Structure formats: structure tokens, C-alpha cells
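Standup notes, structure subgroup. Blocker cleared on the magnesium ion input:
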Amino acid sequence: MFSSFGQLGEGLRATGYIADSIATTTVFLAAKLHKPVLLEGPTGSGKTQLAYAVAEAANTSVERLQCYEGINEEKAIGKFDEPLQRLCVELKSKSANVDWDSLRTELHSQQFFGAGPLLRALQCEKPCVLLIDELDKVDHAFEALLLELLSVWQLSIPKLGTIKARSIPFVVLTSNEERRIGDPLRRRSFYLRVEHPTAEREAEIVALRTPDSTHEFHAGMAGLAKALRGWSMEKPPSVSEILDLAQALKVLGSEQITPEMRDILLPLLAKTEADRRKLLLRDGFASLIFDAQQYSAEALRRSAA
Ligand SMILES: Nc1ncnc2c1ncn2[C@@H]1O[C@H](COP(=O)(O)OP(=O)(O)O)[C@@H](O)[C@H]1O
Ligand SMILES: [Mg+2]
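Run returned:
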């Protein structure tokens, strides 16, 4: 998929994704060794986006299985198209000499099977990225279904048989840690923790989204993110929320956050009642801004060094 570690890093950056060197190495090795990558960490930290960025950098497509409670094999692998099968039987039964055995075989061939994302990923001519997103939403039984796919790159489907991979996809599993993913899947995967980025990296991410703003603005957003996350909030802001805030400030025509902006910005910064109260405390917001300024000055100093 990628000829070198450097090519991958540059490719990701060109898609607008800023990965640290550990993430880049892990993805590179996993792609080379045909290992799935299990990404775990808070929501909005860039797990799903990494899968799309890898696909774009490799110039390939994404097959995405969005997990949810109660998801079943049919959704993941696919199912026979029953109306089409019925239609075929009706048409064929009109002719005098029907060979029922061969008709039954035909009805259970891939022609009559509507493939789901797991099967489609195996059928790609060129290796694609298979994103199995938010795997923590499903139960252990469903995890077991993935084991065959990820160890021998094939799927056994009742009545259809065993389908082997035409190409081996690069598999990305993500989890927001609502439920613990079982050990058999962990054993087969490389494990990458996706945490909130460092202030320097977050400033770079913001810079990619608001390229016409100043360095100070980008570092300011990263500093505020770090300050908010250091505040033991009930729901600390994710990268995506910091990007929203940066866009909102652009709309407001402001490059700086001042204590007077508290009430306008509160709906963007505090997303639970407890967090709102915290920021509404006397001097709460002003001291947050003070911390943010310290962090952004540090980030600017380090990036200049
Ligand atoms: N490292 C990063 N580089 C660029 N953008 C990022 C990065 N991390 C997060 N983002 C932004 O945050 C948004 C949310 O990320 P997402 O992948 O949906 O999070 P998760 O799947 O972890 O909940 C992305 O669409 C992207 O805009
Ligand atoms: Mg996600």
C-alpha cells in the first residue's frame, strides 16, 4: 500500500490528517504485515478520519461497517436477495423443462447475494480500507464473526460457501471504549491509542482548517483545548469541537478569546450542565483563558525552537 514510512506520513498530511510518528509507523507496519489496527480513544480524536485518510493516501476506497447494538451477520456480510430469487423461480417455472437441481445451485450463487461491507472488502480487485467503526457497540458473538475474516481472510456463508479474499484489505477497527473489546481480536491487531493531540500537533490541525489565520490564532486554539482538558471537565472538548470553535471565531470575526466572550462561546465549549456551571463560576472563564494563554505561548515557543 505504501512504499515507505515517509511516503505514508506525507500522504496523510496531504489529505489534511496530522498523525504523530508512532501512529504513522504503526499504520505502515500494519499495512505491510496485513494486520488490523485497533484504534481506541475518546470520541472526536480522529479515529474514523484516520481510516479515510489512509485510504485517500493509498488512492483506494473505504468499505465501512458502522457497528450498532443488535447488528447482525446479514448487515455485515450480506444476504440472499429473496425477491430476485423468487422472480427467477417464477420465470424459470414457466418453461417446460426445468432442472431443479441446477436452479437451486444458481439461486445460491453470488449473483443472488447482496454483499455487505465485509464481503465487498474481500472482493475488491485492489486492497481497500475496511473500516469497522465503533466496534465497542456490538457484542462478543459479533466479534467472533470477525475472527475468521481477520485470520484467514475468508468468509464462510451458509448456502453460498467459503469466499476467499481477492485482495487483503487494510482493516481499521475503532472503539470509543464503551465496552471492552475481547482479547482474541486484540491479539490479532496492532493497538494504537488515539489520545487528544499535543498542543503543537493540535495547532497544526487547526492551521490546516483555517490556513488564512495567524500562527498565534492556531496556537491560541490549541492552548485553549489543553486548558479545557486540564480542567477535569465532565466532557472535555475533542479535536473536532476545537475545529468548530475555530470556525465559529472566524465567523464572529475574532482572532482572540476574551473573558467578555464567555456567554457567546459557552454553547461551544461546555456540553453538559456541570461543565456549563463550572465555566460560569466567578472568575472561572477568566482563569481558563489565563491558562490557555500560558499553554499557547509555550506551544509557540516550542514550535519556534
Ligand atoms: N489528527 C488529526 N488531523 C486532522 N484532523 C483531525 C485529527 N484528529 C481529529 N481530526 C478532526 O476531528 C474530526 C473528528 O474525528 P473523528 O475521526 O470523527 O473522531 P473519532 O472517530 O475518534 O470519534 C475529523 O473529521 C477531523 O476533522
Ligand atoms: Mg468515529
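Discussed briefly. Residues 199-304 form one domain.
Next: hand off to the docking folks.
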